[in-house]
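Title: Request for sanity check on 7-carboxy-7-deazaguanine synthase prediction

Description:
We are preparing a figure and want to confirm that the structure record we downloaded matches what your pipeline produces today. Could someone re-run it with the sequence below and paste the raw structure tokens into this thread? We only need the token string, no images.
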Amino acid sequence: MQGTARGERLRITEIFFSVQGETSRAGLPTVFVRLTGCPLRCTWCDTEYAFHGGAYQHIDDILAEVARHGTPYVCVTGGEPLAQKPCLTLLSALCDAGYSVSLETSGALDISAVDARVSKIMDLKAPGSGEVDKNLWDNLAHLTPRDELKLVLAHEADYLWAREQFETRALAKLCPVLFSPVQGSLKPADLAEWVLRDKLAVRMQVQLHKVIWGNQQGR
């Protein structure tokens, strides 16, 4: 793997150490590797700065930077990480190095080749994102109980759509399901009330890092 890793490069926006703000790993000190570029343009995106720019780094240099922070938890995110094919090599290299690795992906690109040791955090884009037509529904067949589905919701219409997907596609049988409100658009209390009213077996989450630091780059 090391020889293969040294031969590939990825365009990186930033590598930083912070508290994981989402998913069942929320609160864990984590190194984030944010890759540059994304084929989607969600209306509520909070990482538009990762669409362009960045700098190419060899995978072994990325591994060295991750190791400097001394934590077992690594999250590869974007942008859309899988838009760069060497991302698959990076994920496997991180697993080989002994890290507990998660991948945040939009659900618009094929996840079937992702290393089975990686915890895939996959979005399903609700209509309010403006990208609902980009959902690659075949990806659902590649989810396992170690993965998680995340649905980011901007308003009640998004919630009703998400509830329908949850029920008709039996999402709870695939993996844990997360409902998250768009900050500044949907009140967390409203989403919580709807989840309780409908007795949905989902995990409601807010973005912990934004509660702590606000919407800061590198946090």
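Thanks, this matches our download. The chain has one domain: 2-213.
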